[in-house]
Design brief:
Layout: H1 11-18, H2 22-33, H3 37-54, H4 62-68, H5 74-85, H6 89-94
Helix pairs in contact: 1-2, 3-5
Length: 96
């Protein structure tokens, strides 16, 4: 999943790539990560976004970061980011 953050990944695609059924994938994620595969993907995207926003060599706008990590909606990205990190993406960008 890490190497495909920008792509539109479905649970079906992830399960196929892992060589397991959708149900097995969902159960395994619940057992090991206490979240669904989609929730894990969102978490991974947000973590990568934070890394890019803090990097001096990263994109220079929140919109560019949003696109770079595969979020289709800037408002959903900003809301999820603020919930996860306690600050907006633009605040993180300004602090670099």
């Amino acid at each position: 999943m890490t190497g495909h953050l920008v792509e539109e990944l479905s649970v079906k695609n992830i399960a196929a790539a892992a060589g397991v059924s959708i149900r097995t994938l969902q159960n395994s994620f619940a057992d090991h990560y206490f979240m669904s595969p989609k929730q894990m993907l969102t978490t991974m995207r947000l973590d990568k976004a934070r890394e890019l926003l803090k990097s001096r060599k990263g994109p220079t706008s929140v919109g560019d970061v949003c696109e770079a990590v595969g979020f289709g909606h800037a408002s959903r990205f900003s809301r999820g980011y603020a919930e996860r990190f306690g600050e907006t993406p633009s605040e993180t960008l300004r602090s670099r």
